[in-house]
What we know:
Strand order of the largest sheet: 1-2
Distance between the termini: 19 Å
Radius of gyration: 21 Å
Structural class: mainly alpha
Strand content: under 5%
Shape: globular
Amino acid sequence: MSLGTTLTLLSPELTLFLGAALVLALDLSLRGGARRAIVWVALAVPILAALLALAFLWGQQVALLSGMMVADPLALYFKLVAYGCAALVILGSPRYLSDRTDRPGEFYLLVLLATLAATLASAASDLISLYLAFEFLSLVSYVLVSFLRGDRRSSEGGLKYFLYGAVTSAIMLYGMSLLYGATGTTNLAAIAANLRGPASSLRWLAVPTAVLLLAGFSFKIAIAPFHQWAPDAYEGAPTPYTAFLSVASKMTGVAVLVRVMFVALGDFQPTWARVLGAFAIVSMILGNFVALQQANIKRLLAYSTVAHAGYIMVGVATAVLAPRPFNGLNGVLFYGAAYLFTNVGVFLAVIAVEQASGSTTISDYAGMWRRSPVLAALMAYLLLSLTGIPFSAGAFAKFFVFASAIQAGSFGLLLAAIGILTSVVAAFYYLNIVRYMFFERSEAESPVIVNRSVKVALAIATAVTLIIGVYPQPLVQLASRSAVMLGMLF
């Protein structure tokens, strides 16, 4: 492959890197109010240019850098989710950061680097490139979670995240070393071929290896029982980055898990799928029932993301790489896009309320209907979408995932049944926030002033959630094509 072709295929990543360098240069050179322009540079230059580059690459199915990475529909789909999340997060950040730091450019720089790491991990097709990209994302995330240096909760959340991450990273790396030792290669497709051929006598190693790898991936996705870091990290991190962590970081872990498990260990799906299914059951039950007890909305949403990780894993555990309406993997991809706009939208509303009240307790939402009717209405709709009500993106997301599980026999039926029942539990704590906003009185009667950039980002997130809920067909087709192409490429 020529250098020009390689650079073209890497153009989204190169654009993000150059944009991050530009933001750093501006942050070092600009003074005072001129720094406010950095947010638009961080949005307009790297992310919009990366989206444009991604559009030209759509439909590609090629390996590059000696098989270390691939440009295929699955990677491009997850890159699109990461770019969308980064754009909404950066758009909703300026006012929040201006009250908490005099160096907002550092935050935008780190978010762009985290987005770059997420795109590299989504396209990795070799254990070495996968591990390096994963650790790149983790290191940037540790810094961003503890970004508010004067906040004790931010420092505590960052430290816990780092300690848990170091342990699970070592576990994941040990699993990768076993896989390399058994097959003599780090390329995912070559690993699968060797386990069928020259290394077939060591196939038994694939099962403990899969468990070790799942532990590492589950940490990044916040799947129980590897979720312990999430509540403290979510509560302590700057709220805009909490939104990024809940979607982009989670979906990057899903992308890596899907590629490794289906490409390298696809022959062992009956075994690792049951382990993953058990993780999904624990996540759905624990995440939803513990969320019921939370008084802080960021901790509540942390446990909510644990539950949603369980729903996503239901689709992965019951997935079949075949062109049928509900193959599990297309449900996972659809869920990722729907969850992006719904969950980030909720966090944008949390940012607005936090700016007005200085707190993130659920009781602060009392009387929000009187103080900001539009904000309360939009947040209520997004919360109901997370619940899975009709005419919302969340409804179709859960439908696709559970429909694939129902087709997978008794094991899938069990997963679907637990998913549906725990979704009912989730309705209690989501509707409790709605109850506070519409039916509880507040001592504070002053209107909640929502920053213009937050208004724009929240309007975009809500509008896309509604559009997907009313007309999901384009996203369904995109997710289905990307899912099937994974099987065709390898």
